[in-house]
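agent> fetching stored inputs for the zinc ion docking request
agent> found them:
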Amino acid sequence: MPELPEVEVVRRGLERWVAHRTVADAEVLHPRAVRRHLAGPDDFAHRLGGHRVGTPSRRGKYLWLPLEDTDQAVLAHLGMSGQLLVQPHETPTEKHLRIRVRFADALGTELRFVDQRTFGGLSLHETTPDGLPDVIAHIARDPLDPLFDDEAFHLALRRRRTTIKRALLDQSLISGVGNIYADEALWRARLHYERPTASLTRPRTTELLGHVRDVMNAALAVGGTSFDSLYVNVNGESGYFDRSLDAYGREGLPCRRCATPMRRRPWMNRSSYFCPKCQRAPRVTQ
Ligand SMILES: [Zn+2]
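agent> prediction call returned; pasting tokens
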């Protein structure tokens, strides 16, 4: 599953290669890829034609292409294996090509949505007054958003009776933080994943947000990370960052700070990686 940095890498690629181009036509090769567009594949293709693509936008892991002079946007669901590729027309069709978008210009490239497992897709939605597709209007800002409100986030943490990793993955509080980056930021902040959020002081919250941003920016700097070999960016290159990870996937390996063997615990159908010495489990109260 791509995380925020991977999605941002794709967004930047689309901004460079697709923004401000006018759609000539769209071709849906597999109806499942537009199943979230309830009016069907023909309607989807018809509605895109003739519209100019605005600046590709992102919130958390959600990515969309606004259609200029409309109040509509194409939302991309990358799912587990979805890829948005910008390819020259003559590049042979990918085996799992689901949607092809051609443009009314002479640049010689087209946008392709390729998805082996077809969990992803594209769908067209009305946008809210601030430009979000309506179906994601409830998603909180992400920590790389200049308008993210650190103080409001801290106060929300204090009010909630939850634990810190659950809060970091709660898209209504903060978006775009997935399992990998949560473990990395918590290791850097020396916080155990089950620490109650009500116990966090303002300086601790500020420090943690700083680590979340550092981890994401580091991943962005190398073009995104992924453990899914199917992940490729908009030009088809794989982005790997795993050698730089300090916590995720390091069970049994020495903590890079104190050399204590790292541990893995099952957590909400996933895993949490942590250092038992640097990230002490909270004492059980009650
Ligand atoms: Zn340690």
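agent> quick read of the result: The first helix runs from residue 4 to 17.
agent> awaiting further instructions
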